[in-house]
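Extended Data, panel c. Modelled sequence:
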Amino acid sequence: MSREPTDADRYPTLSDAGRAVLMHMTEHPHAPVFRNRSGNRLLHEEVAGLRDYERNEGQAPFAWSPGVTPPWLGAFVAHVHAEVPYYRSRGLPPSFDRIATVDRGDLAADVARFVPDSVSLDRLINFRTTGTTGHPLVLPSHPVVAGRYLAYHKRALRRAGITLRQGRGDVGVMLLGMQRTCFTYVSVTPSMDESGLAKINLHPDDWRDAGDRARYIDAMRPEIIAGDPISFAELLRLPVRHRPTALLSVSMALSPSLAAALQERFACPVLDIYSMNEAGPLAVYDEALGGHLLLQPGMFVEVVDASGRPVAPGETGEITLTGGFNFCLPLLRYRTGDHGALVASDEGPVIARLHGRQPVRYQTASGSWVNNIDLTHALLAYPLSRYTVHQYADRRVLLRLAPGDIVHADEASASLASALHGVEVTVVPLDGDDKVLQYTTDVPEGLTR
């Protein structure tokens, strides 16, 4: 937009009850400093469509299994090659397995070429992603796409015997971060009768009093609390009395020990959701099934070798995606950088032995800790094609930059040293493959277990 959005832009369907819950979340005496403003931007007809979508996706079966492609695959491939500039320029290969794979680096280089021609720019939104592997991304999306996440979270919750009940006047979901710099806001969920949603940062800098963190959570009483292992590890340290209906861990690998500690403390199911910004919620861990059960019937998952060839069911390789619910970014043989094996179950395909993104934190010169995402923010000002950050046991940090990016070495190392409160940073060239494990550490406490 060419102007600052208004509340009418952010919440087109907002009622007086929705306005009241927004005020409750922002003006509570223990509320954090909300640094940003956001909203669902959903129109009335889109809210009705999302309710139908949630019902349909909650019950839809999988029409494919490991080693057997879905019946919709051919039409999807033809649509993508007709509508998406990147694939149209390549031409339609004779068979699906001849389509060259793409990865995060391809999206980072020119994501606009992956947006279908038919997607209107009028309501297109984008957001920047950060993580532990690959490249920072700006991803195209839409208010309806953002609204569709709930369908797959509900599907995962339903398997745990949970049906969401919060509605008008309630806080339904609280999203946790634990970063020095974090996007924080409040909103409402129209398909849940405008129940409140709050994204908060547990870092003490975002609060008038560090003790308000637990007081605010207790006052809001969210039905669901979602976060990553780093923010959940901080939650365990707070004297929170509230017991949510469930905890959802997203974005990074959740260790069994941390899951057990959370379940014991909060006396509720802890769902480990395998999720990524490029594809949304992909799978939920089920110990009885021996892995992560897929959640999206419209996402075809392959496991491929280094050359992009599918491996046999049960063999380990790189998880590769085709399909998805983001019509602004249809994925076609997208290599995630994560690894696992695909096996069958009575409920649908399962990713076994998932080796995903490990949450990493870094120790500063003063002995405090910062999230790997904070280091991503520290380096965003520089046009780095790829890099890795490793911390040695003595706290020294090694920054590896692609040879073409070494010209930014002085500025990048200074930014990292500042984010780490004076830790010594050394820069060396980065060699090898484009797919790198971006954040690593030798400090035992740096990995949230």
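The mean pLDDT is 92. This feature is highlighted in the accompanying rendering.
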